[in-house]
Amino acid sequence: PRPAPLPEVSPWQRGGALAGSRRCELCGAAARLRCRRCRLTYYCDVDHQTADWKYIIDLASSTAQRFVLDGKHEEAIPAALHALRFSTEVYGSNSVQLVPAYLLLAEASTGAGCLLQASKYLSQAQWIVLRTPDCSVAVQQKLHRSLGLFCAAEENFEQALYHLANDIYLTSSMFGLKSIETSGGYFHMANIFFHQNKMDIANSLYAEVTDIWHAFLVKSLRAQEQIINSRPEMSPLTGDEAVGKASLTEAQQAEAIRVLNAVLDIREQAPKQQPRETARVLHTLAMLYYLGMDLPKAGEVGTKAFNLVKGLPQQESLEAIGHLLKLINSTPSCTK
Amino acid sequence: GGCGVCFPISQPVLPMAQSLLKAVLVICTYLVRWRTEYRFKGLKSLFLIPSNRNSYKKNICIDMLRQGYHESFSELFALIQKWNALREAAGPGSAIWQQKSLEEQPDKLHQLCHFLTRAEAAQRAGHYEEVYDNQLYLAYYCFSDPEDKWLSNYFYEQCFNTAQLIKIDGGKREAQAHANMGLISEEQGHVMKAAEHYEVFYQLTEGSTWKDETGHTYNSLACEHLWRIYTLLADKMLENKEHDQAIKTLIKALKMAKEGGDKMMEGEAAYYLSLAYHFAGEQQTALSILNTAVKIFTALCDSAGLGRAYAAIAKILESQGKAAETMKYLGEFMKVAENTHLSQSLVDACVLLGNIYNERGKYSEALEYFSQASEAAKALNNLPLVDETKTYCGIAKAHKLMVAFNSHIEAEDPVSLKYLLAWKENRSDMCTDPLTVGKTLVMKHISAVLSSMVKSFFL
């Protein structure tokens, strides 16, 4: 990113009432400089100020994201604006680093119903991407995801499907065909086809989303069990931390719960019931709750799955669900 | 700490008009590119479509995804990855290294898109026979080039998986799929796997009326495949000296050949079975089966088969020392050959007989038969065969000459010596007139050849 003009830091006055006791905001060493704008924060040099600002950008972004995940879109907007402003200061107004901030603002605005504002933010983001010749695939994918969701909100379904198709293509290139990252794109696409009443396509896509999560969670569960079995004195909580590579971020977990519950609702309210599909979603959710240490929910959902499969002619998944329930019941519940 | 809303967003430094002009120019460029490159019709959008020169592969994938054909997308994407993996594994210098990647072949991508999406639509509707038909089209018609064998095999396998789900056609496609998988296994050298598939093909087609485009019933095809595969299996067993196993397998092969109704197959099967018995030492059984083979080949007028069968009979009988029987059979062979006007068989029969007489020292008879063989070969216009039979004649003649030569030497009297000397000088027939002048040069050449033959005889 191009170095942006930073507001100056001025050496703070010595001999003042607070002389000798200021610590750098970032590293805690003795600070020589003070931010000129707010006059409240101290740093040992300009690099530390820049790094601190990056931390601030991160903080603002994740706060905004948490609000969005919780459905509080209006409350997310100030934090998202903050992230944008700091990003502009640090990286410059045409930098590709601004794109995530714009996309976050667009998402918050869309959710809050300000579609015009959202479209402006998305235009800006797209503008930057078009003008960045070596723009990474990751940024392009995020842009397409946001554009897709926005068009869907606008009920411009053809366009939304085009953008989501790009999203899925790019995530498949980055993470693989059946990755959990790709499942997001499939889910949003499924919602559009559902809205258009193209049920067979929607069902197929929802099934794909379920399958991707099912496969991922089975793998995670197996990995965790292997670790526990090799070190039996470890509780599942610490074992989960040790899994590392295959574990989810908090955001991913929250997203997964939201997505799978949405799919479950659709399955349960479908005019023509498909018990095998419903059971599969329930099983997947149970695994997710268990790995996230929400044992009561895991037990509730898992039992539902078990009873559903018992009533089916072919019960291949019964053993797996039964095993999961045993795990749930044998794990001592502990507060996180 | 947190700096709040203390300072404004920084503004770009360029003068207003300049930056506006620049912006307008860039917009126009992108709009022009959008119109020419992106073919999405009727799209009214607030946003510019990013025009970063999508590859054909990307456009096709996005097209499939937009319409909801995500399984087709996954399959195409995976096939492209598979090709790249195959190429990596083969390494530089291999045939595949030089080939164009699948993603750079628009016509193939187009075909894949077309049939995969149709298959997916059919699958969603539960019409598995349609899914199968689309996959079969890809396997059989679209990828029939040798360099696309891996793609064709892939889709045959997909057909096989789909066929298990089809209930509506009484199992015809399932049978077909087993046959195709059998053929692929056989091509790849997995003989046991091929046998398994062919056996299921046979079971599924028992009592059915299904026919292929040449009019053969599926069941008869199954018999043919099984005959062939059992013969291959038996070959391996014979190599490993597992005679009993080989015989059991060849008996199965013969049964299949009989059921298949193709007499040629049956004759071949009988012949191979008899060989197996011969190798196992059961000569009587071998002979009786060879007789069956002979009958079949005679009815078919197949000279190749007859030749092999009679040669085998002669060899076995000779090894058993049954001279008279051998001659009897070979005489039969000659009669058969004359009756069915099979010149090749006549040649074969005469050569066999000539060899036997030759080995027994009856060189005149041998020469007679070899000459007859030569005449029959000439009638066939088969020059290599004529040369071969002429060589046999030469051998018989040489042997005959040797007899006379030896007798003259053993006699040790002046008359004999005179004969010998005269012969040496002008190659006259030493049995008649020693003073006949012959063509000395030519005779000297023949003398050289005969001398070496005589030498080899003594060695």
UniProtKB/TrEMBL annotation, chain A:
Q: Which InterPro entries match?
A: TPR-like_helical_dom_sf, Zinc_finger_MYND_domain, Znf_MYND
What keywords sit in the KW lines? Metal-binding, Zinc, Zinc-finger
List residues of the MYND-type domain. Answer: 24-77
User: GO terms for molecular function, please?
Assistant: zinc ion binding
PROSITE patterns with a match to the protein in the record: ZF_MYND_2
What is the superkingdom listed in this entry's lineage?
Eukaryota
Q: What is this protein called?
A: Zinc finger MYND-type containing 12
Query: What organism is listed for this UniProt entry?
Result: Athene cunicularia
Biological classification of the source:
Eukaryota, Metazoa, Chordata, Craniata, Vertebrata
TrEMBL record, chain B:
The entry's localization annotation reads: Cytoplasm
Q: Which GO terms describe its cellular component?
A: cytoplasm; sperm flagellum
**Ranges: TPR repeats:** 347-380
On whether Magnesium is a keyword of this UniProt record, the answer is: no
UniProt xrefs under Gene3D superfamilies: Tetratricopeptide repeat domain
Sorted alphabetically, which InterPro entries does this protein's record hold? Bac_ResReg_Asp_Phosphatase, TPR-like_helical_dom_sf, TPR_rpt
Answer yes or no on keyword Repeat: yes
Q: Which UniProt keywords apply?
A: Cytoplasm, Repeat, TPR repeat
Q: Which Pfam families match?
A: TPR_12, TPR_8
Give the superkingdom in one word.
Eukaryota
GO BP field: cilium movement
Cited PANTHER family: TETRATRICOPEPTIDE REPEAT PROTEIN 29
Query: What does this gene product do?
Result: Axonemal protein which is implicated in axonemal and/or peri-axonemal structure assembly and regulates flagellum assembly and beating and therefore sperm motility.
Name the chain's protein: Tetratricopeptide repeat protein 29
Q: Which organism is it from?
A: Athene cunicularia
